[in-house]
Design a protein that fits this description.
Blueprint lengths: L1 H20 L11 E2 L9 H5 L4 E2 L17 E3 L2 E3 L20 E3 L2 E3 L21 E2 L2 E2 L3
Antiparallel strand pairs: 1-2, 3-4, 5-6, 7-8
């Protein structure tokens, strides 16, 4: 009898350890944000299956919450349209490969005089931007 109880306890402990060590994978198309309470100290299983999780398309105000990636909701994800390369200026507007998003506009940091080498780095009057540097050779 004691042997059965011991084996059952060992199996339950192994199962608990396995479940707590399993990583949680969320789909990229879902942006889940807890709407109430903190998950601090809760297991990953409870965090994943917590009630009150919603997407920003149903409640866009979630994107303005502290810790959000950005204040705008695009394709069910919180983003910042002023800096997001996939949603530059408005949802769905993608910058080209060599461009980044500065203040909601796609710019090439290698050649743009107003964003030379980085956002809002302006070359002096009469200087050009080459290879991301003002007045380069």
């Amino acid at each position: 009898m004691i042997k059965k109880i011991l084996i059952t306890l060992i199996i339950l402990m192994a199962l608990a350890i396995n479940l707590s060590a399993t990583p949680i994978e969320l789909n990229d198309d879902e942006d889940l944000v807890p709407t109430s309470g903190s998950l601090r100290g809760a297991s990953r299983f409870l965090a994943q299956h917590s009630r009150g999780l919603v997407k920003c398309n149903k409640n866009p105000r979630l994107c303005r919450a502290k810790g959000s990636p950005g204040p705008d909701c695009c394709n069910k994800k919180c983003v910042n349209v002023k800096t997001d390369k996939q949603n530059c200026g408005l949802c769905g507007k993608k910058c080209k490969h060599q461009e980044i998003c500065c203040k909601g506009k796609c710019v090439n940091l290698m050649t743009d005089k107003r964003n030379c080498g980085g956002c809002n780095i302006k070359c002096k009057k009469g200087n050009s931007c080459k290879l991301g540097m003002c007045s380069y050779a």
